[in-house]
Amino acid sequence: MANTKDTKENKDPQEQVDQTTIPGYLEDADALREQMSKTEEFAKNNQNLIIGVVVGILVVVGGIFLYNWRVSEQELKAQSELFPAIFYLEKDSLQKAMKGDNATTEGLEVILNEYGSSKAAQLATFYAGTVKLKEGKFDEAISLLEDFSADDFLVQARAYSLIGDAYMEKDDLAQAIKFYKKASDHYPNDQFTPAYLFKLALAYELSSDLNAAAKCYKDVVDNFKDATEKGMAEKNLARLEHQLKK
């Protein structure tokens, strides 16, 4: 009797776990048949439910496909409308850029209203803001450009700078400084950052913060030695340093 007890107690624990976790119908053929019978009965009794679930999945998958296809189609159409509008903007034909020419483009306004989910429409927001700035409609320009967001760090920095320009035109120096600083801090580069720093320096000068202005000019002189703005920055820096010594 003792040997029997020891045998039970020394039984492999993994074997005990396996036996307790394996469903009975996988070891017993009759139980397996019974389980299959129950499954078939459930399928018969709930046929409409099962069909509904399958159809629901197909509808969702189909909806995703159609959405992606529609977005792709929208993107192509929006791009074909955008390029001629940009051409008119560059030629200062602002009315045609916004309203279209009844031939090659319907204009930026239509792109914004009808292709809003496309990347081209997001870029159209930037160009529409530029048009409004050129037209002297500064509040509209600010609204559009603040709605704009781009992965391209050069374009995004340019948008910040244009917002700063609009606030400068409105004589709101505090906001102009804010956005010129955002432009100059946004992924600094040799091509555009010196110009943003120069604008920032001018805004600081107009707000009578000569130390901050001098710092911006010095940044251009010290860190952007090949910039076209460097010569003027050196002159302005010398002028401010002379003023600050008085």
Task: Describe the 3D structure.
By secondary structure, the chain is mainly alpha-helical. The protein has a domain at 150-246: Tetratricopeptide repeat domain (Serine Threonine Protein Phosphatase 5, Tetratricopeptide repeat), CATH 1.25.40.10. Helices cover 78% and strands 0% of the residues. It is built from 13 helices and no strands. The radius of gyration is 34 Å and the shape is elongated.
Q: Mind telling me the CATH class of the domain at 150-246?
A: Mainly Alpha
Q: Going by CATH, what is the homologous superfamily of the domain at 150-246?
A: Tetratricopeptide repeat domain
Strand content: under 5%
- What's the helical proportion of residues? over 70%
Number of strands: 0
CATH topology of the domain at 150-246: Serine Threonine Protein Phosphatase 5, Tetratricopeptide repeat
Q: Point out poorly predicted stretches.
A: 1-27, 53-70
In DSSP terms, counting alpha (H) and pi (I) runs of 4 or more, how many helices? 13
Task: For the record, give the distance between the C-alpha atoms at the N and C termini, rounded to a whole number.
Answer: 110 Å
- Structural class, from secondary structure content? mainly alpha
Oligomer: single chain
* Inertia-based shape: elongated
CATH architecture of the domain at 150-246: Alpha Horseshoe
Give the overall pLDDT as a whole number.
81
Rounded to the nearest angstrom, the radius of gyration is 34 Å
